[in-house]
Amino acid sequence: MAKRTLDAFFKPQTTTPKRPKTEPFEPNSAIPTPKPNNIPIEDTKPPSQHPSYPIPIAQLPSHIKVGLEHATPATAPREINNQPHLDLLHFQPYIPRPTANELFNFLRRELPFYRVQYTARRGDIETQISTPRWTTVFGVDETSTFIQEPGNNPNSLVLLETKTKTPIPKTKYQCTPRPIPACLDLLRRQVEAVNAAANADNTTPSYNFCLVNYYASGEDSIAFHSDDERFLGREPNIASLSLGGERDFLMKHKPLVPGGITNRAAGGCGPGTAHAISGLGGTSATRASCTVSGETSNSNTASSPGSRPAATVPLQQIKMSLGSGDMVIMRGATQSNWLHSIPKRKGKAGEAMRGRINITFRRGVVHGATNNYYHYNVGSGGMYRWDEVAREMILRDSKQ
Ligand SMILES: O=C(O)CCC(=O)C(=O)O
Ligand SMILES: [Fe+2]
């Protein structure tokens, strides 16, 4: 992609977002009623509600919305494609830091979170796994669509078969899919738009899932894995946004076998090359199976010294420090060839203790995506919410 094209689109923002003037009161309210705690009237929009939600989910306060609408992308992205099969865009930041920090506080306070436990089976052996972070998910794969019922109420969404526009059979999903709430849907649409502008081939990704991780401290983590499940289709485009405390994001190439990547391959990482090599990495670790392999490093990822041919490109592990508002878009052959992780961070003080939210936008193409994402990110345990006084997640409902 020509650098000029990117720069032209992502020219630096010169305006700083301002709090909007208070909107007029509703025409039929002759005497404005005072709002508790001086909440501006525009912040009192009704929350997103849906029978699948355990709680109503607040709308973005207008100052955060204005910040997102007027100041993103805050910087032009840096392309990182200097290693085989690697195709990243790094916005540093995508959301200006003050707005990103407010968005972090808002989402931590308003979203339902889960600490999912599940059973993993390897042959005859069953292991109980505790996901080492808080998670939640919204969205549905492309075979189903949330459609607004007649009457224009944005909260009256029904789930229909995408093709036939008929109600989905009761047995289609083992979970109850949740529509992406307005506060995350604005982000989704914006990220799609910047992404389209950055794609040399003018393709517009359209995301139908929003996964959220909350890392409460340096003890919370995600092990090396790749998001290359078949239910995401070929060469998935995944946008990953960081909010709150800074954390390291590590990437390493999947293991190579003799005859793997050569300098020639590195010079032309077209789909053919990528496809040929991706098969050599063995089974990729999914969000579930990576957990089984230890949540710190993945046993199938250590490349033995003898496994590389003499003329290989040196494959370096990548370490990026992701701060509040940063966004990394992983594209092309990245997922089928590279693993990524957020390692634990030692020490009881510092950035990790601020907590960090990660939001990924993805597109699921078959119904297995929906079952998988809800199983591992909502599960069947209790629902927790952030408590501002206790400064921790508190169990609010022992069911989802
Ligand atoms: O927290 C992050 O930056 C990474 C999250 C991630 O890799 C995932 O949810 O699949
Ligand atoms: Fe991931």
Share of residues in helices: 10-25%
What integer is the average pLDDT? Answer: 81
Side-by-side strand order of the widest sheet? 1-2-13-10-15-8-5
Globally, the shape reads: globular
Concise overview:
This protein is α+β, with helices and mostly antiparallel strands.
Quickly list its features.
400 residues; alpha+beta; seven-stranded antiparallel sheet; four-stranded antiparallel sheet; 9 helices; 17 strands; binds 2-oxoglutaric acid; binds fe (ii) ion; Fe2OG dioxygenase domain-containing protein; AlkB-like; broad specificity oxidative DNA demethylase activity; ferrous iron binding; ALKBH2
Overview of this structure, please?
The strands form 5 sheets. A 7-stranded antiparallel beta sheet has the order 1-2-13-10-15-8-5, with helices on both faces. It has a 4-stranded antiparallel beta sheet with strand order 9-14-11-12. Strands 3-4 form a two-stranded antiparallel ribbon. It has helices spanning 3-9, 62-71, 97-110, 182-198, 263-267, 271-278, 289-292, 334-337, 367-377; strands spanning 78-80, 88-91, 117-122, 125-130, 134-139, 144-148, 157-161, 209-215, 222-225, 238-244, 247-253, 318-322, 327-330, 338-342, 356-362, 383-387, 392-397. Helices cover 20% and strands 23% of the residues. A hairpin with a 7-residue loop joins β1 (78-80) and β2. The protein is globular and about 60 Å long. α2 (62-71) crosses α3 (97-110). It has 400 residues and is of the alpha+beta class. Bound molecules: 2-oxoglutaric acid and fe (ii) ion (FE2). The site of fe (ii) ion has 3 residues, from loops. Pfam families: 2OG-FeII_Oxy_2 (PF13532). GO terms for molecular function: broad specificity oxidative DNA demethylase activity; cytosine C-5 DNA demethylase activity; ferrous iron binding. Residues 1-51, 288-310 are annotated as: Disordered. One of its GO terms (biological process) is DNA alkylation repair.
